[in-house]
Amino acid sequence: MPNPRLTGLGGGLFCGTLMFLLGWVDGVLFGASLTVYGVLFLPVCTMTALWIRRADLVTAPVIVPIAFAVGLLPVADSGSGLGDRLMGLFTALATQAGWLYGGTLIAGLIATVRKIRLMARRAARKRRPA
Asked: Residue 4 and residue 29: Cα distance in Å, rounded?
C-alpha cells in the first residue's frame, strides 16, 4: 500500500481531481448515478485523510466537501445554460448531503485520531529521560 504524504494543497488537488474523474467515469459507465458517486466518495475521503501529512491534518475535513462539489460537475443534471447547470449542481448537493456529511465525518474522525496519536507520541517523548 502506498504511503504518500500530501501537503494541504496536494491533498486538495488529489481529492478534487480524483472526484472529478470518478464523476466523469460514473457519468459514462453508470449514467450519472448519484448513489454510485456517493459510494465512491467515501474511500476517497479515507485515502485523503490517511495520506495528508501530519502538519496539514486540519485540512482534510475541509478538502473533501470541496472535492465532492467539484466531482458533481460531470454528474449533476444540466441543461443548456449556466443557470441550468448551477441548478442541477445545487440540487445534487442538497439531495446527496448524506454522502457529503458521511465522507466529511470519516475524514474528520481519521484526522482527529491521527492528531491525538501524534500528540500522545510527543508527550511520551517528553516524559522519557534524556
From this structure: 29
Question: Whole-model pTM above 0.85?
Answer: yes
22-33 tens-digit pLDDT: 999 999 999 889
CA-CA distance, 86 to 84, in Å (whole number)?
5
CA–CA separation, 44 vs 12, rounded Å?
11
Phi, psi of 52 (to 5 degrees): -70, 135
Residue 42's alpha-carbon distances to 33, 64, 116, 123, in angstroms, are 15, 10, 22, 32
Range 87-108 burial, b when 16+ CB lie within 10 A, else e: ebbeebeeebeebbeebbebbb
- Using CA atoms, how far apart are residues 82 and 96, in angstroms rounded to an integer? 21
